[in-house]
Structures are given as C-alpha cells and as structure tokens.
Amino acid sequence: MTTVEPPPPAPASSGGQRLLRRLARPGAAVVSGVLLYVSFPPRTLWWLALPGFALLAWSLHGRRARAGFGLGYLAGLGFLLPLLFWTGAEVGPGPWLGLVAIEALFIGFTGLGIAVVSRLPLWPVWAAAVWILGEAVRARVPFGGFPWGKIAFGQADSVFLPLAALGGTPVLGFAVVLCGFGLYEALRQTLAYRRTGTLPRRAMAAAAATVFVPLAVAFAALPLVDDSAEDGTATVAAVQGNVPRAGLEFNAQRRAVLDNHVRRTLQLAADVKAGKVARPDFVLWPENSSDIDPYRNADARDIIDQAARAIGVPISVGAVVTPDTGPLRNTQILWDPERGPTDTYDKRQIQPFGEFLPMRPLVRMISPGYADMVRRDFGRGTKPGVFDLAGTEVGLATCYEAAFDWAVRDTVTHGAQLISVPSNNATFDRSEMTYQQLAMSRVRAVEHSRTVIVPVTSGVSAIIQPDGTITQQTGMFTPDALVAEVPLRSSLTPATRLGTLPEGVLAAVAVAGLGWVAVHSVRNRRRSAGG
Of residues 103, 135, 185, 287, which has the active-site annotation? Predict the structure, then answer.
C-alpha cells in the first residue's frame, strides 16, 4: 500500500505576507493623504504633495471603480482629518468628524474617476483633470460648497505658484497633481524596462513630459508675477485689536473686542502724531471687530467715531448688523472720520452651520444645543465689495470668502487696486486654521497681482505683496497695528481675465476621459454579447 505524504504546511509567514499585500494599497492611500496634509501650511513642505500624488497613483492605477472609490475615500480621510481638525475647536469632535466624513466622499468619487481613466493613454493628464473636477464640485455643493483643502492653497511657497497668475487655482492645482502622477508613471515605466529590457520610448517620453512640462510652464509664467506700483502706492494700516481671554460673558466679550480695536487705533493715532509711524491713508479693521451693531447702539457708534476722528482717515469696520426683522448681516462699513458710516459691503459667501443653519429642524433634533448657538441666520449680500478709501479702490473678501475663486476675482474685475481679507479666527484658538487661510491670501495675491491685506481679530494679520511674499505679520493673540506703503495695481492677469474658463476646460477634459472609458466599456460588452 502506497502512502501519500501530505503537502508540507505553508510557512507561517505566508499568511502575514498576503495580509500585507492586501493592506499595501489602502495603507498607501492613507499615507498619500497624510503627505498632502503635511504639504500644507504652516509647514513649507509644499513639495511633499508630489510624492503624495505619486503614492495615490500607485494605489489607484489599474484598480476597479469600486476599489478606486474606497481607496480615494481613505486618502481623503488621511488628508482631511488632520487638515480640518480646527473645525471642532469650539463645538467638539462631532461636527469635525461629520464634515470630514462628507468631504472625503468627494475625494472618494475622485479616486473612482482616477481609477477608471488610469488605463487610458496619457492617463496622468486625464487623472489630474479628474482631480480638478472633484475640487470644482466640492467647491460648489452642498450648501454653497467647501473648497478648503484645494491643492493650490498648499502651494504658496511652491515653484508652481506663478501658474496662479496664468489660470488661477485650477491650473496651479492641475500642474501639481499632474507632476505627481507623472512621477509615478515615470517610475513605473523605468521598473518595466528593468524587468523586460525593452525601452518603451513613447511611454517614457510621455511620462517625462507630464513631469517637466508643468515645471517649464511655471517658470515661463514668472514674468506674470509683478509687484511694481502701476498706480502709485498707498499707506495702509491693519489693526489687530485681539480678543479677551476666555471666560467673559458673551455680551461683555463683544464690547471688549470693540474696545480693543478702538484702543489699538487710538494708540496708532498717537504713534502717528509722535512721528513713530507713517500716517496711513486708510485703516482696515477685521471681521467682527464690532459685533455690536453701531446703527442700533449709540455707544458703539460714538467710540468708533472717536477712533476715526483720532486717526483722521477712513476705517473699514467689520460689524454684525442686526435689523429688527430678517437675517443678520456680516457687514464691512466704510467709516468716514467726518461723516460716519457711509458705504457697506455684506458678506456674500456665508458659512453653513456657522453663519446659517441648513436643515434647522433636523439639526435641532440631533443637537438642540448647537441649534441654539446659531439662533438667527445671516443673510447673503448681493453686490461685490469695493470701497473707495481715500482714493484707493479696495476690494473686500470677508474671511471664508477668500477660499472661493469668484468672491475674490469679482472685486478685481470691479476695479479693486488692492484686496482686503478681514477675518475673525478667534474661535479656532491657536490652530493651523489661520495659517491655512493666510496661504490662500498669498495665492490670491499672485493670482490677481494685487497687494492683499489681512486684518484679523486675533490670528495672524499680514501685509502680502502682489508676488505672494509676506512683508509684515503679527503674532497670534497680540494687539498690533501693521503700517506699510504698498503698491497699487490695475492691470489684469490672464487668470483674472479668464475667470472660470480654465476650470471649465479641465472639467471638460475629465468628463471626456470618463466618457471615453464608458463608451469603450459599452462597446466591449456589446461585442461580448454578440460573440
């Protein structure tokens, strides 16, 4: 009788190796998201976005659509969980986790699209366009969109930054993503050559082009970055009054914040009189510098008048206006030292769940306390904000609006020679939020070739030149006043002239790539069915 020996048992490590292989791509997707996060301010590691996208490409290339969605979602979590941590500073982790879970869905669907087009010729081009399409959708829906975390906003120190002046944030972001995907494709072709000994010249040339062409175009766009004073200069002051320490009763804190900005402006006036600083042509106060409505509160009006008369120049005052009926208004008020309040600008892109509460009945069922915090919604303004401040046309993009391409651009197309981004970051304490927002303003400066002034209640106020460099900035939670002579400009960059056209073209490229795959898939199925 012949005895059949059983096969030897598999090595114990083989199961572990299979598990590692199964986890390799999900792990790479998460790490790619983390690298994207680390590439964002306050760090100056912008270049980490390139290996981040290369790693994302490795995890998605050749995957099925369902796997692409899951891997993209993991990358979104790795990116957005740390990036948006500050959103839970005031209300706890629930809103932060909920926001990330929803926003990561957009990156999940973007991953699906990248996986789908990854088998096309020149796939890095199609895939980078799909990423920009995903950002475009995320910037518009739901509730007006949430563009925070656009790849362009992490590139304020990047060699790619001049591309912002060429085609805005979509072109800047596209170049970074394309270069990262191209790096992966170049490495993939190199490894294939080592395995087979056959050099795929066309594929290698195409891969190299996706890396070097974005860099070459960025260097070619350098002449568009110009900080010369086309229309002369203006001396501007940005006042950061600071907020009181935590623990004050809400109404008292509102008055304390206003008093702080008045006090710091009076000190500025004294410094000007003593010859310590130059006399400004106008003064910019931040968003919410007067949460007490000066139209309804005579005391608030009187002390703002006092500050304006003391400095002797117009002040742009950030106020909350509270009409008897209807929504509140987040308003910038042009305050003349002689005539008092004159022109106004109402914030147009208001923050969901912060300045207005969508689905209020549902939110009240889930979190009554949070619904009570946002008792009355803010309304949206209807016209672009451009103030004539002592002869200088100053465009206004209030805080959250800096993240939206259109909200900054139309101040320039309506004549702004300089841009102000009045903001209130006090709610988010010492988090990275203020640095992320400051980077947006630096990108906007290059995009539209304008000086950008960022007056903030307690974060980092700054003077940004049209080339994106910061020439002055404050510390956090420190009363201060920045005074600088800055260039005024009126010419329009290609990005300003083109508006949404570059984004539309890239979105159309993405849709064409997805459509190409869909048509090809349908034809293959028909052939299979017919065969």
Answer: 287
Instruction: Please report the sign of the dihedral spanned by the C-alpha atoms of residue 346, residue 348, residue 351, residue 356.
Output: positive
Q: What is the mean pLDDT of residues 206-225?
A: 95
210: burial class by Cβ within 10 Å (0-12, 13-18, 19+)?
A: buried
CA triplet 265, 269, 272: central angle to 5 degrees?
135
8 A C-beta contact, residue 281 and residue 231:
no
- Does the active-site annotation cover 447? no
Largest CA distance in the chain: 115
- Check whether 246 has a pLDDT greater than 50: no
pLDDT tens string 276-324: 999 999 999 999 999 999 999 999 999 999 999 999 999 999 999 999 8
DSSP state of 292: S
Given 179, 399, 401, 447, the catalytic residue:
399
Please answer whether residues 225 and 467 qualify as being in contact, where contact means their C-beta atoms are separated by less than 8 angstroms. yes
Kindly report the CA angle at 264 between 261 and 269, in degrees rounded to 5? Answer: 125
**338 given a catalytic annotation:** no
pLDDT tens digits for range 467-498: 999 999 999 999 999 999 999 999 999 999 99
Long-range contacts of the stretch 367-371 (C-beta < 8 A, 24+): 367/94, 370/91, 370/95
**Token digits of residue 350:** 């208001």
For 391-431, the three-class secondary structure string (H helix, E strand, C coil) is CEEEEECCHHHHHCHHHHHHHHHCCCCEEECCECCHHHCCC
Mean pLDDT, rounded, for 220-241: 97
| Residue 287 is among the residues annotated as catalytic for this protein | yes
d(CA 9, CA 264): 78
pLDDT digits (tens, 9 = 90+) for 135-148: 999 999 999 999 99
Half-sphere exposure of 362 (CA within 13 A, CB side): 4
List Cα–Cα distances, 459 to 119, 242, 456, 473, in angstroms: 46, 8, 6, 10
